[in-house]
Amino acid sequence: MPNQLLQLIVPPAAEDVVAEWLLERDDVPGFTSAPVSGHGSSERSMTLAEQVAGRSRRVMFVIHLPTPVAASVLADLRADFPGSGIHYWVVPVLEHGRLE
User: Fold this and answer.
1) Which CATH class for the 3-92 domain?
2) Global confidence as pTM
3) Which of 14, 37, 53, 97 has most Cβ atoms within 10 angstroms of its Cβ?
4) How do the domains of the chain map onto residue ranges?
5) Low-confidence residues of the chain: pLDDT under 50
6) Among 87, 82, 75, 73, which residue's Cα sits nearest to residue 36?
């Protein structure tokens, strides 16, 4: 079964609730999160301070999942977090493993 890398870009105010939501799911074995900065021309989604700084603070969640699970997580995100401003993308995982 092919695997996908689901990446979520989440506003900082939603970081804890999204992390908890992911941790409560039996189909998500784990994830990585990191603070990131968004840069671009979408000023309407930026606070005044972010516009002055030229970047918006966000949190990125990275989740490696089988394709059907990634689709299910996205469907549930749409249902549970409407209007949240979460940005996402899904890319195929060509290879994965663990060096031990």
Assistant:
1) alpha beta
2) 0.83
3) 14
4) 3-92
5) none
6) 87
